[in-house]
Amino acid sequence: MRLFIIIAFIVCSHLVSGQVRTTPPTPPTPPTPGTKVTVNSNTSVTINGKTYISSSTSSGKGEASNSKVKIKQNSSSSSTSVSIDNSDITYSIRASFDDHKTERIKKLLMENLEKEHLTAKGDSYVWKRIEDEDIAYSFALSDGRLRAFVNKELNSKSSIERFVALGEKISDALSEK
Q1: What angle do CA 166, 108, 85 make, to 5 degrees?
Q2: Residue 30: inside a domain, yes or no?
Q3: What count of Cα atoms within 13 Å lies in the side-chain half-sphere of residue 175?
Q4: Is residue 6 part of a domain?
Q5: What is the dihedral of CA 157, 38, 139, 98, to 10 degrees?
Q6: Would you say residue 168 lies in a domain?
């Protein structure tokens, strides 16, 4: 009996000492507050020289976002791309186009944006309004390129509607030859 207890003790102590103590794996670190995670998917179709690109964007920050749609018109002498993103807190436009259309877009912006927020350097024009040290809106135009950003939290509902209407006018103007 004593021999049985000694053998059982040795076996148990051997089993206990044979177990390797490992630290549990560290769980993944969640993103820090304010980190925006975005997932994009693109689909393109070309019909009679026109390329239609549909982009879908999902944000991990909980904000809703409408799909971006880019329309490219490609021919031997013309190329236009317009992307409009309308989320809960921002509205933005990115456009690239032939240089000869720049004057048309400049005229639209001059008619629809406040001149006191305009800064011009050479062939570049920037309309920017600052509200409480944040950018309420910014439109930057240079030869063949437009970038616009509107912070919906810093603009009135009527101003946002004006910016959306302006975006539609810009898109229409760029689709004309």
Answers
A1: 30
A2: no
A3: 13
A4: no
A5: -130
A6: yes
Beta bridge partners of 100: none
Domain hosting 134: range is 80-175
The pLDDT score that the predictor gives to residue 151 is 96
Burial of 60 (0-12, 13-18, 19+ CB in 10 A): exposed
How many domains are there within the chain?
1
Q: Which helix (H) or strand (E) holds 164?
A: helix 157-175
Cα end-to-end span (Å), the chain: 102
16 part of a folded domain? no
pTM over 0.90: no
Per-residue pLDDT tens digits for 56-76: 555 554 444 554 454 544 444
Dihedral angle sign, alpha carbons of residues 104, 107, 109, 112: negative
113, 87, 13, 77: which is closest to 5 by C-alpha?
13
As to burial, measured by CB atoms within 10 angstroms (0-12 exposed, 13-18 middle, 19+ buried), residue 11 is exposed
Can you read off the two tokens belonging to residue 152? 């919906």
Beta bridge partners of 42: 55
Decide if 57 contacts 74 (C-beta within 8 A): no
Question: In terms of Cα–Cα distance, which of 22, 34, 72 is closest to 174?
Answer: 72
